[in-house]
Amino acid sequence: MAELPQNVKGMNDILPPEVAKWQFVEEKARQILDAFAYRELRTPILEYTPLFQRTVGETTEVVEKQMYTFPDRDGSSVSMRPEGTASAVRAYIARSQWNREPVTRWYYLGPMFRHERAQRGRLRQFHQIGAEVFGIPGPSVDAEMIAMLVALLLDLGLAAVDLEVAVNSLGDPDERATYREALRAYFSAHADKLDDFSRRRLESNPLRILDSKDPRVQALAASAPILLDTLGERSRQHLAAVRGHLADLGVASQVDPRLVRGLDYYTGTTFEIKAKVGGLGAQNTLAGGGRYDRLVSSLGGPEIPAIGFALGVERVLLAMSQPAESFESGLTLYVAVLGEKARAFALPLAHRLRLGGIRTEIEHREIGLKAQLKRADALRTRLALMIGDNELAAGKFVLRDLVKREQSEVRADEIEPRIRQAMD
RNA sequence: GUGGGCGUAGCUCAAUGGUAGAGCAUCGGACUGUGGCUCCGAGGGCUGGGGGUUCGAAACCCCUCGCCCACCCCA
Fold this sequence. Notes:
By secondary structure, the protein is of the alpha+beta class. Helix content is 40%, strand content 21%. The protein is built from 17 helices and 16 strands. An eight-stranded mixed beta sheet has the order 1-5-6-11-10-9-7-8. The chain has a five-stranded mixed beta sheet with strand order 13-12-14-15-16, sandwiched between helices. A three-stranded antiparallel beta sheet has the order 2-4-3. The mean pLDDT is 90.
């Protein structure tokens, strides 16, 4: 066993029954994103490391300890993308996209990589469906995006009562800086009650102390200064407007003042959608996102506001109660073959049917008819066409409906129309 | 990075120191060319790997590899 090849830890194969469920999710996502006027963007999985350092943030957990970073053959440092927004913004700037259209809506879908300890709902290669909107500053697009996410999750079969929509505002960079100092002052005064983790965060990222699960720190955080209180009128109105629009769209939201996203580029609105269903384990955040109004300019582009989200595909899959098998459809036709002469006749016949779009399996092995029909059952096939010496001699073939348990004899030229008839 | 749990047939799991088993799945037969049910049968295991204790280890001890769960982090 030990010498068998193994897959890299936290990176899994996804096999056929499960893949059908993936395809269902991807298809629904594409449908709804398409309906909301998004277009697909595809970017490389590898980027130069500084891109992530400058966007996600030098001091964030993701960049500090979780990236797959290695030297390229020319010595430059490259990293496997830990998230999708950085690449989208890079592409946006590289193409001067703002000169092509005033508003850009992009979505992407694919694998992301973070070197974390794997657990339920958290893998080292995981998959996100994400979207970005560039060029709209107003709160209505924030609400639109959140409502779209909720619609997608409902479309996938999740129940509204199981979803929690949390929103918050991080304010503009100035407000955030002011708040950061207020927090630092507050927690510094109570430094003796902080755990080691939080104490280190004092300097680098005091906002993250609010997220601590340490009971003493939580108690402390409960009476810490609240970001919303230090926000200016503009930010507060923006958040209120987002919630108002959400209500208009039929989405109930809660303000979570401690919703501090772990990526540095966020400004203003942040949001998170959690699912309260079994099967998810401790990682119950299905999607998260927010505004990053300063990111485009900080990477050398013009001042373009933007907002985005990412949805964790694996987590959505876990939250969906339907088994993977239920997303797989059976075959239409199984061609049972008895003998080499029959096979020589059946092969081109099956070929034609397949090219005509009829999902067909043909038996290539020398096995009995009984075994072939069992195989047809296992493949959840609708019809079986039986071809043996008798049929060849008579020029008539047995077409059996495996669901109705009825069969009839058909001439060669009747086969395809009869199959199409049965498919309706 | 820290802590805990678990590795026995393809899958889910029994066997607590004394001959490695069951269910499901697979294959075959009953039914020599007609499926899902039933009955009968078969194949399949260096019990993750290595070392130790013992007359004897799947079990006890050590090491190692792997998986899982949680902390943390986040999708």
